[in-house]
């Protein structure tokens, strides 16, 4: 495994097995053809024409889209087609900040290949021997990426809540970070990727924050999603990222971005030019 391979793993997909998902006059997603077969029976909601998936013409407002798709998703979850449920709504947009074209259950985002958004928080500590970073180990009973390493705090960006508000909420839930500390987090980068998963197309935007923590602070998980927190030197995080698969897939992208920004990964690396292109340009 290598930095470059991690980036490519998050951006690998087979276009031929997907059909475009359009809403009105705009393509907003990519739907796996096998999943699309489950939608054919819901012909009062979806239409298949010209090799693309759309809402039927009578569903022509964001509110109608939202109301029509919700019971479809519930049925597919009951049938086991949608294999998890979060109970959290995402706004479907082409770019962050746009008015949503409709709202969708978070667990269904990848099935429709619409863009999802998330916040990732790097917990950083300055010590006498250099910069250290807090990383979280996900609980071993989580349905996805159990037991893998993660950023200290990370979470999806639901509809109806601002990014900083979400950072503060997730920081409290996942690491028991006080509000007055969490609100000092700084938005430092935005990453995009599009890759194939067993559930469909993952088309994501990650908003990455740096949070400098006092040396005596120890995070505590409060929502049961983290088994342990580890404080490790930045160089060790770099080694783990470059040589193993211990971190959750998209967390590697956040790690690589951090290493570039802090100068631990630079032009002397043989893959640096490709890393920069594929992390920041090709995946936008």
TL;DR?
This protein is α+β, with helices and mostly antiparallel strands and about 280 residues long. It has helices at about 5-10, 35, 60-80, 110, 165-175, 180, 235-245, 250-260, 270-280, and strands spanning about 20-25, 25-30, 45-50, 50-55, 90, 100-105, 115-125, 130-140, 150, 155, 185-195, 200-210, 225-235. Strands 7, 8, 9, 10, 11, 12 and 13 form a seven-stranded mixed β-sheet that branches. A two-stranded antiparallel ribbon has the order 1-2. A two-stranded antiparallel ribbon has the order 3-4.
Shape: globular
Return the structural class: alpha+beta
Helical proportion?
25-40%
- What is the total domain count? 2
Low-confidence stretches: none
Number of helices: 9
Determine the strand fraction and express it as a percent band.
Answer: 25-35%
- Relevant CATH superfamily of the largest domain: Nucleoside Triphosphate Pyrophosphohydrolase
Mean pLDDT: 95
- Using the 3D structure, state the CATH architecture of the largest domain: Alpha-Beta Complex
CATH topology of the largest domain: Nucleoside Triphosphate Pyrophosphohydrolase
Q: Characterize the largest beta sheet: strand count, sense, and whether it forms a barrel.
A: 7 strands, mixed
First-to-last CA distance: 23 Å
Report the C-alpha radius of gyration, rounded: 20 Å
Task: Give the tally of β-strands.
Answer: 13
Q: Report the order of strands and helices.
A: HEEHEEHEEHEEEEHHEEEHHH
Please give the CATH class of the largest domain: Alpha Beta
